[in-house]
Every structure is written in C-alpha cells, then in structure tokens.
Amino acid sequence: MKKYKKHIKKNWYCFILAPIFMLLEACGEFILPFVNANIINKGAANGDITYILQNGFYMLLIAIGMLITGILGAFFAVRGSTRMAAGVRQDVFDKIQTFSFSDIDRFSTGSLITRVTNDITQIQTFTQSLLRGFFRSPTMLVGALIMSFTLSPDIAWIILVVVPILAFATFMIIKTASPRYTTMQKQLDTMNTGIGEAIVNEKVIKSFVREEHEKNKFSIINQNLKDKSVAALKMMILMQPISALAVNVATLIGVWVAGRKIMVGGMEVGTLTAFITYLSQVLTALNFLANISLQGTRAAASDRRISEVLDTVPEIRDHNAKKKEHKINSGDIEFQNVSFRYFKDTKTPVLDRINVKIHVGELIGIVGSTGSGKSTFISMIPRLYDPDEGTVLVDGIDVRNLSLHELRENVSVVLQKNTLFSGTIAENLRWGNEDASDEELVSVCKIAQADSFITSFPDGYDTEIGQGGGNLSGGQKQRLCIARALLKNPKIMILDDSTSAVDTATDACIRRAFREKLPNITKLVITQRISSVMDADRIIVMDQGKIVGFGTHEELIKSCMTYQEIYYSQKDREEEADHE
Ligand SMILES: Nc1ncnc2c1ncn2[C@@H]1O[C@H](COP(=O)(O)OP(=O)(O)OP(=O)(O)O)[C@@H](O)[C@H]1O
Ligand SMILES: [Mg+2]
Q: What b/e string do you get for 111-121 counting C-beta neighbours within 10 Å, with b at 16 or more?
C-alpha cells in the first residue's frame, strides 16, 4: 500500500470528494422513487394538482442535483485514479532505471513493459471503480431497503429474501471466474512478450523467411488467450440473466402480494411502483459490487507484479561505497583473482580467477574464441556485473568503493549490441555529453572516422536517424556509437567488437587516431580480427574464462598456443581469399 499512499496523499481531495459526491448522488437515487410514490398515492389518487406540481418540482431539483453530484463524483474519481496511476508508473519506470544488467536479465524486457503499462492500468481502473462505487453501492443497497420498509414492510421482505440469494449466486460466479481472470492475465503477458519480440526482430524474421513460423506461433498464443478469455467471460455473462431472473421473480411476487392488497384497499399503487424501482436499484448495486470485487482480484495480481519491481533491491548499488568522493584521475585497471558466473549454481565459471594489470594510456587488444568470456571480462570494469570473487580496481581503488556515477562517467563502453535512438545524429551523440559544443562533436567524429560520412548527408549532423538507427549502415552505426562514447571524455574506453562491420582500412584509421589523439586514455579493444590488434601495446588472449596469454603480438606468437591457432587460421583464410 505504501507505493500508493504517497500519490493518494498528493491528490487527497479527489479521494475524499469523489466518494462524497457519489454518496450524495446515491441519496437522490433512493429519495426519487419515494417522492414519486407520494405523487401517485397522495397527489394522483386525490386529484391534488398543487401537490403533484410541488413534488414534481422537488423531483426535478433532486434530478438536477444528482446530475451535478454524479458528474463531480466521476470527475474526481477519474482525476484521482489517473494521477495516482501516473505517479506509480513513474516510480516503476524510475526503479527500472536503477536496475543492473542482472536484474533486467531476471525480469525480461517484455514482462517489464507489461508491468509499466497493463498492470498499472488495472490498478487505475480498480481505483476508479472503488472511488465511484465503494460507498455508493452499499449505501444504495441499505438505502433502498430502508426506504422500501418505510413505504410498506408488507412487500419489503421480498427484497430481504432476494438479496442473500442473489449475493450468494454472485459470490459463486466470481469465485469461479477470478482464477480464470488470473490465467487470462498471464496469457496476456505471454502475448505481449511475444508481440514485442516479433516486432523488434521483424527484419531478422524476414531475412530467415520465418514469417510463417512466427504467424503460427502467434496464432497459438492468440488462440490461447481467446480460450482463456472466453472461459473467464463465460462465467461473467451468467451474472446478467441470473440477476434478471431473480429480480423478475421478486417483482412477480411483489405484484402478486401487492396486487391483492391494493384490491382490498390495503395498499396504494405508488408503493408498488417504488418497490419495483428499489428492486432494480438493489440489482444494480449488487452488480456493481460484483464488478468491483472482480476488478479487485485482477488488480491484486497486478499489484503483486508491480511490487516485485518496486521491491527489487538493485544488485549493483553504491550506497556503501567508501570512496564516493574520489575523482578518477587515471585509467589504471587491475583485476585481482576475479571469478564470475551468470548463474551462481553452474559448475564452470564464466571468468576464472583473472589477474591482470593494465596501465594508463595503453591500447589493449582482447581476443579469444566466441563465448570465451571477453564481453563478461570488460563488463566488470563499469560494474555492469559485479564479480563473485576477487576485486576490480580502477585508479587503484576497488570499483565497489567508487560512486557509480563517477565510475560510469569515466569508463565508456561501446557494447557489442549497441543501439542508437530516434532523433538527429547530433542529438544521439550528445547522449555522451549534453553540453558538448559542435566543435567537440566534429572532433570525436573525426577520431571515430564518422565525420566524412556524416558530412556527406545533405543534413549533416542534423540528419534524422530512424528508430534503432534503421537508415544507417552497420558500420556507420558502429562509428557513431564510438563517437558518442568518446564524447564522454572518459579515462577508459572499451570497444566490444565495435568495428566488426567497418572495413579494415577504416578500422586501422580508427586505431591510429585512438593512439595519436587519445594518448592518456586507456583503450580496451575486443575483436575477432587479430589483424585489428596486432599493433596494440599488449594483447590479452582469453579461452574458457581464463587469460591464457598477455603480451605483445611478437611475444604471443612465440609463446601462446591459443593465439597461434587463431592467428594462423585467420591468416590462412585471408590468403585463401586473396587467391580467389
Ligand atoms: N547475460 C547472460 N546471462 C547468462 N549467460 C551469459 C550472459 N552473457 C553471456 N553469457 C554466457 O557467458 C559466457 C561468456 O560470454 P561472453 O559474452 O563473455 O563471451 P564473448 O567472449 O564476449 O563471446 P563473443 O565473442 O561471441 O562476443 C558464454 O558461455 C555465454 O553463454
Ligand atoms: Mg562478446
């Protein structure tokens, strides 16, 4: 409840005024039939026109009052619930921003999206209904009962009999329907994840001609959702006919009992009319309560899912960092006995007791077969993940003791799977540094060998980029990502296979620029092409989570088996290509 309290407090007047206005409206609802009965019984029966006009005027006033209070009640209910939902949505979104990579791995992106959108909408709908009906419906129930007893206990007892029967039937229906709704909700989750994945990867799907497969997969999920929804709704549609039947039977009994009394002069016609109106009010109130409790069960499921996000303590935080004030001066990096597993119960570690020392300003190449742990290795430096054992030091200080902000400001990583956002090229670059001048943009783009292709566009740096950089080539995107990372002016720059789509000549230019223009930045370059890092100061060779070689190209070619294997296999392939 804590998560809602804050936002309820902020909009407290909505949460007080909405039920009050709805209550006032309900009062009108059960006074009207009473006045009406009087008009029939006293006015019409005696032909008293003044009485009829006077009470008719009262009825008009009450109706206008009900209109105004009804509108105001609905207005404040909508205002309160949407504002509260917006607040919680912001909280959930903000919380997700604090998540570490492992937290996101755990939830999955699709499910996080459903939580921020659909789950919060469920809470909003429920809150709105609650504000409108929580007091109003029971009041209407009790009010209708009291009023009908005041009019004539002779037929009011029928309501007393009908209500428990109807309530019991409603309860049974909801009891069966509510778990079905929960299943339906889960199925909706599966569908959202499925749709998200398919649409994001539309191009991959097309290139593998997997459209049919995807269509079938979706059709199964869709069918499933339909079945689950039908199962839930099947129960709910029973409610209408059952309550209609109950009310009709009750009316019938009422007419029969009242009719006999009216014939012998023991009751007036107006009383019967009012009684019938009260009966239908009871029915409406019961239906409303049933709907609220149904929405309640759905909202409870959503609430649990929202809490899961809000209650997550991000795995990587810096609240206990001992050197939060420390400003990183140099890009020295050291790994001391670092081991790491993604899944803590797997046997073989992804990083296995890594020890390595990298000096400021060095250009370090990192090579190794796919899956050998290269990306994992570098993700320890900006604390995308924390090691299970051992320590990573930057500028001689354990990264866990630095402020996360300071650390990540100074360690720029171009991730293997990097993305651009919709907006202009300049806007994208300024993600690296909001206040960068145009000259700075040009200067980093020159280092990343991006300036020439950007200026060849008619709009230059103001060229609009489509979603995810769709209108740029793979190599162009990579160079923009490098420029964006450079703009942060980091002490440590990490490129994870970031020039894989760039031709070798341009790749060499980037490295030369790195060496000449960024002598004081420590540069780590992961690559599949040994030719890209042959001229690096030193090269790290990884194999199955271990560092199996560390030295210059000349040293490694003599001493490191793994390095030799990779080098010669790539050389042979290049020669074969040359022959062809
Ligand atoms: N987020 C993750 N969750 C679970 N396992 C992961 C995750 N990322 C990587 N792994 C596993 O960790 C191991 C090392 O992966 P890593 O990405 O570090 O390799 P890599 O050397 O960068 O490979 P590549 O050259 O293909 O990029 C692999 O076995 C991989 O399956
Ligand atoms: Mg990798």
A: bbbbbbeebbe
Neighbours of 260 (CB within 10 A): 11
Residue ID of nearest Cα to ligand 1 atom 10:
342
Residues 151/275, Cβ–Cβ less than 8 Å: yes
pLDDT given for residue 364 in this prediction: 94
Q: How far apart are CA 395 and CA 360, in angstroms?
A: 9
pLDDT of 492 > 90? The answer is: yes
Measured distance CA(218)–CA(84) in Å, rounded: 34
Pocket of ligand 1, beta carbon within 6 A: 105, 342, 350, 368, 370-376, 416
CA 429 – ligand 1 centroid, Å: 28
Which atom of ligand 1 lies closest to the CA of 528? 25
Q: What is the pLDDT of residue 580?
A: 65
| 243 Cα–ligand 1 center, Å | 60
Q: How far apart (Å, rounded) are the C-alpha atoms in residues 524 and 532?
A: 12
d(CA 7, CA 89): 11
pTM over 0.70: yes
Determine contact, residues 25/83, Cβ cutoff 8 Å: no
Complete domains list, the chain, with CATH:
2-310 (1.20.1560.10), 333-417+491-579 (3.40.50.300)
Residue that the structure tokens 């949460």 belong to: 15
Looking at the predicted structure, is the pLDDT value of residue 203 above 80? no
Asked whether 178 and 295 are in contact (CB, 8 A), the reply is no
Determine how many CB atoms are found less than 10 A away from the CB of residue 2.
7
Cα–Cα distance between 76 and 279 in angstroms, integer? Answer: 29
Length of the chain measured in residues? 580
Alpha-carbon distance 26 to 137, whole Å?
Answer: 8
What pLDDT does 323 receive? 84
CA–CA gap between residue 91 and residue 415 (Å, rounded)? 27
Q: How many CB atoms lie within 10 A of CB 158?
A: 21
Which one, of 114, 304, 116, lies nearest residue 190 by Cα?
Answer: 114
Q: What number of other Cβ atoms are within 10 A of residue 563's Cβ?
A: 23
CA-to-CA distance for 477 and 499, rounded, in angstroms? 10
For tokens 């269509």, the residue is 215
Residue 208, class by beta-carbon neighbours within 10 Å (0-12 exposed, 13-18 middle, 19+ buried)? exposed
Instruction: Give residue 70 CA to ligand 1 midpoint distance, Å.
Output: 60
Q: Whose CA is nearest to atom 17 of ligand 1?
A: 375
